[in-house]
Amino acid sequence: MTGTARRPGGRTARVRAQILAATVELVARDGIAGFRYEEVADRAGVHKTSVYRNWPDREELVVEALLQYVDDLGTVADTGDLRRDLVDFLMVIAEGLAKPTVRALEQATHAIHESPAVRRAVTRILQERSAALRRRVDLATARCELPPIDYALFGEMISGPVHLIVNRGLRPFTRADAERIVDVVLAGVRATTPDA
């Protein structure tokens, strides 16, 4: 018996990847409300029926596209050097903010009140990034590198300036910026903690 073996990840996988990438680019550019299936198909280089057939619901397409790229948000390493790990984390965030996938996520956060499905996806993505930071903060606390702190507030203090500098686009975000931010936040956290 002879037959043609199907290759895993063949044309169908390639077409799906092209559609998801096109969706992310368009959401990053136009927001969720602004993109159309016809534009997705055109940008992906496929017929629009390929988009409709795989994702009859526009929200499902956006959600799957966003979830494909969770790794672009970055994570926090544990090298044993808290300062370096946090500086590296901020550099990953800054680099990620230049990617269409992260810009699409930012656009999606502005539209979460319009779609429960998108809200769930955005919440899941942000929770995963928050969990990575929490794990690193917990390790730092256990090693006495940090006092017990509100890790959510710590995360906002660390990452907020990165978003501000990058999103304003007035100048590039540098490693020196990341180092200054981390130094100020760590000094503030350590200085405001009451003595035991």
From TrEMBL:
Top-rank taxon: Bacteria
Coiled-coil residue windows: none
Family annotation (InterPro entries): Homeodomain-like_sf, HTH-type_TetR-like_transc_reg, HTH_TetR, Tet_transcr_reg_TetR-rel_C_sf, TetR_C
A Pfam cross-reference name: TetR_C_11
DNA-binding residues: 36-55
Gene3D superfamilies: Homeodomain-like, Tetracycline Repressor, domain 2
The entry's keywords: DNA-binding, Transcription, Transcription regulation
UniProt xrefs under PANTHER family: HTH-TYPE TRANSCRIPTIONAL REGULATOR RUTR, TETR-FAMILY TRANSCRIPTIONAL REGULATOR
Protein name: TetR/AcrR family transcriptional regulator
Species whose genome carries this gene: Pseudonocardia zijingensis
